[in-house]
Amino acid sequence: MSSQINETLKQHRLVPVIALDDASQANPLADALVAGGLPVAEVTFRTPAALESIRLMAERGDLLVGAGTVLTTEQVDQAQAAGAKFLVSPGFNPRVVSHALAIGMPICPGVCTPSDVEQAIEHGLEVVKFFPAESFGGLSTLKAIAAPYRQMRFIPTGGIGPANVTDYLAFDRVVACGGSWMVKPALYASGDFSGVEKAVREAVELVRST
Q: How many domains does the chain contain in total?
């Protein structure tokens, strides 16, 4: 991650993980994020609408947009062309990571073992995603994995919500937490994004207490 992106993530402490089925929802969702005080979005490559959604959000200029669930070098190139400023992947694929770094795209690959972390160090990375966080033992596992690698920082994602996010953020090796609870599709299924804005505001207030 670039220092500027790291600073933005450290400032906001949360990365909303978004899967949009309809790119027409991208701008209203972005409006809700910005209005709620969280101008960050990780738009995942889990739907056909992902690329257009990334493009629409990125061209606004008022929020930091990343591409998530990046699994191939082709998706790295597509995300960069669409305007994404950073990439996130669920696991550590050396080919994908090397390609991203070669073209100057900051990438935060997923790790869940010491071997994964050592691969990240070998590639010169300083921030990785701990995923799936809760399924792999949660905060206690993260602390155990982090202990030997003092230079590495983490973005835990997976099973994180209002009940445990502040516990993760209290660990000084955590840059931010990824989560989807404040951007769940059920909150805007009716076309009204006020529920997203409310959930985002509550999430922002929650992490400010950490």
A: 1
For residue range 111-131, what is the model confidence (pLDDT) as tens digits?
A: 999 999 999 999 999 999 999
Which residue of the set 74, 122, 126, 129 is catalytic? 129
Which CATH number covers residue 15? 3.20.20.70
Q: Catalytic pick from 10, 42, 59, 85?
A: 42
Mean pLDDT of 159-184: 98
Closest CA to 142 of 119, 162, 160, 163: 160
Q: What does pTM read for this prediction?
A: 0.97
Catalytic residue status for 129: yes
Tell me which residue range forms the domain holding 80.
Answer: 3-208
Question: How many CA within 13 A on the CB side of residue 7?
Answer: 3
